[in-house]
Amino acid sequence: MSQRPYQQQRGRQEEPYRINHKIRVREVRLVGDFVEGGNAVLPIEKAIKLAQDNELDLVEISPNADPPVCKIIDYAKFKYEQKKKQKEIKANAAKVVLKEIRFGPNTDDHDFNFKLKHAINFLKEGAKVKAYVHFVGRSIVFKERGEMLLLKFAQELEDHGVVEQMPKLEGKRMNIFIAPKAHKK
């Protein structure tokens, strides 16, 4: 069974940038330290020769430009730095934590206040809070009580969070989502 030419070999990852002879255009815009003025349009052969003379690689940075933009650099070092940047971006991305708080339709004041304190702490830590009323058996007839409870909960948390989604019944649960307020720096 022969493999089609456009399919990749298993386990091999295609290079994200074209380098040296894999660049298939007549001329390129060369940027960087190896050209006068920091940028020039050169024939591809001359650009590759310039890279080889400096024992470096010609790397296509922006293939969609006209002509494509290339740079003479050490490709292995360039790939390493790109990978490092991606890791840094990923590490700095905000990780959203979702904490759940469960109520019954007949939750009394003491339990309500106890869960409210937990929700305040969660919001201060930067986590989102999903509060829900779980209806068991015939308690589903008290939908209004559940909605009132969640609205009261949201009102108590007004200083600490913002309601993302108003109470909504999904099956036997009525949910409300509250996100922490953005702190001014």
Radius of gyration: 30 Å
Strand content: 25-35%
How helical, in percent, are the residues?
Answer: 25-40%
**Main sheet strand line-up:** 2-1-4-3
End-to-end gap: 62 Å
Order of helices and strands: EEHEEHEHEHEE
Model description:
It is a single chain. The model has no long low-confidence stretch (mean pLDDT 83). Helices cover 31% and strands 28% of the residues. It is built from four helices and eight strands. The strands form two sheets. A four-stranded mixed β-sheet has the order 2-1-4-3. It has a four-stranded mixed β-sheet with strand order 5-6-8-7, covered by helices on one side. By secondary structure, it is of the alpha/beta class.
Topology record:
Blueprint lengths: L26 E5 L7 E5 H10 L3 E6 L6 E5 L1 H18 L5 E6 L5 H16 L3 E7 L8 H14 L4 E10 L2 E8 L5
Parallel strand pairs: 1-4, 5-6
Antiparallel strand pairs: 1-2, 3-4, 6-8, 7-8
Write a short abstract of this structure:
With 185 residues, this protein is of the alpha/beta class.
Kindly list the characteristics that best describe this protein:
single chain; 185 residues; alpha/beta; 4-stranded mixed β-sheet; 4 helices; rod-shaped
